[in-house]
Amino acid sequence: MSKTIQRLSLFFALVFVLLLAALLASYFFYQQPLKSALNGNNRLSYLKELIIPRRDKKIIYGFLPYWNLRDFALQPELTHLAYFSLTIAADGSLITQTGASLEPGFNNFRAERFLEISNQARQQNTQVELVLSQFDNDDIYQFVNDEKAHLTLINSLDSLLQAYPISGLNIDIEYSAAVDEQLRQNFVTFIRKLDWYLDSKYDQVNLSIDVYASAASNDALIWDIAALEPYLDYIIVMAYDFHSRLSTQAGPVAPLFSEDDSWSKNINQQLKKFLDHVDRSKLLLGIPFYGYGRQTDSNQP
Q1: Given the DSSP bridges, would you call strands 206-212 and 234-238 parallel, antiparallel or unpaired?
Q2: Cα(215)–Cα(237) distance, rounded to whole angstroms?
Q3: Residues in a beta bridge with 98
Q4: Could you give the CA distance from residue 165 to residue 174 in angstroms, rounded to a whole number?
Q5: Cβ 187 vs Cβ 173: under 8 Å
Q6: Nearest-5° angle of CA 49, CA 278, CA 64?
Q7: Which of 61, 131, 212, 270 can bridge 80 by disulfide, Cβ–Cβ 3.0-4.6 Å?
Q8: What pLDDT band is residue 18 in, cutting at 50, 70 and 90?
Q9: Residues 74/81, Cβ–Cβ less than 8 Å
Q10: Is 182 helix (H, G, I), strand (E, B) or coil?
Q11: In this structure, what DSSP letter does residue 230 have?
Q12: Is pLDDT at 263 greater than 80 in this prediction?
């Protein structure tokens, strides 16, 4: 009888040790599954419905500024790489000179380093696109309102698209002065003509624009989103710089929400407006990988 008791005691002791080991292992190694930011958040419920069904392959679109060519390392996750940038002049030509020197964006575009990056991108099936930019208000106003300037730019694109393996054009025209309706409509006219030119002459050359996060809700900006949407493959929403170095109030670069009305605008609020005019498959969310350090005199918003 004593041997039987000893064996039972040993058995139960072994079972106890195994259970304890299993519990300890689960404590140290088990991780709760990551929770979606959409779950349990009523402010994002409208997105939850839109996300299902999900796009099989998302666009991961990266901008490569000309001043970062030497330090750049191509990441395998990128589906699109956009060279930033060639600058549009007021007459529609591409600026190649600044004074006695070559314009840096143009000069680096023709550099051996960019050719190396382009070849590497094609080898890993990353599409290479070209950004055409304009930031001077006077130049923008003259260019957008001049149909001859539109034709000048379109004609100059032939040499670029035939000589370089460019799979898309990204238009980054940012007008910061007061906008009239004529300027807005003439910008639509320019994009419409550019879209027609690309579709009629080249196979599978994408056309996109960069817009402020408030573009869909602010008629005082150059972009008429509803009118532009039919001519674009995608719209890149610059969802950042809600607060910047120039801001008089400290705040986040890209607030997802506005807690207790701390900030007048936020990404969630702005994106809802885009969905009224643009199919979700055309929207690309611009994400900031930077922030600002500020010295403040209180902890109040």
Answers
A1: parallel
A2: 8
A3: 101
A4: 26
A5: yes
A6: 105
A7: 61
A8: confident
A9: yes
A10: helix
A11: G
A12: no
